[in-house]
Specification:
The structure is a single chain. The chain has two domains: 78 residues, no CATH class; 40 residues, no CATH class. 26% of the residues lie in helices and 0% in strands. The protein has three helices and no strands.
Length: 119
């Protein structure tokens, strides 16, 4: 029985895609490319070049599509802990920089004394 694959970024089920994954296949949920080092069973951030395959060419951008001949999709590529940490960090950044709606942005600009100088 084949292993059930999940997107390395969002964890979406990839059973609708036909194996093998092509270089330009994308996740049906988040539209991220799937033929990337982060989705490969040889990917390991703890080793040199983040790849356990010695003969593979060095790929600088691990989250971009590549032409690696050793690519083998990993069923364990998605890490829920990392995804939760990323969502938490995004929420904290949003709170820090005050992700405001368009109506809120207009209120801020009208109350800015520097903007009033140029009216």
């Amino acid at each position: 029985m084949a292993e059930l694959l999940h997107c390395w970024r969002c964890g979406a089920d990839l059973s609708s895609l036909n194996p093998p994954l092509s270089r330009m296949d994308e996740c049906p949920e988040c539209a991220i490319h799937l033929h990337v080092c982060r989705m490969c069973s040889y990917f390991d951030a703890a080793v040199t070049r983040s790849c356990r395959e010695d003969d593979a060419e060095d790929v600088k951008e691990k989250e971009r599509p590549n032409f690696c001949d050793y690519f083998k999709p990993s069923a364990d590529a998605f890490n829920g802990d990392i995804a939760a940490a990323n969502q938490s960090a995004q929420a904290q950044l949003g709170a820090l920089f005050g992700e405001a709606s368009d109506g809120d942005a207009a209120d801020v600009s009208s109350s800015n004394p520097a903007e009033d100088l140029f009216k």
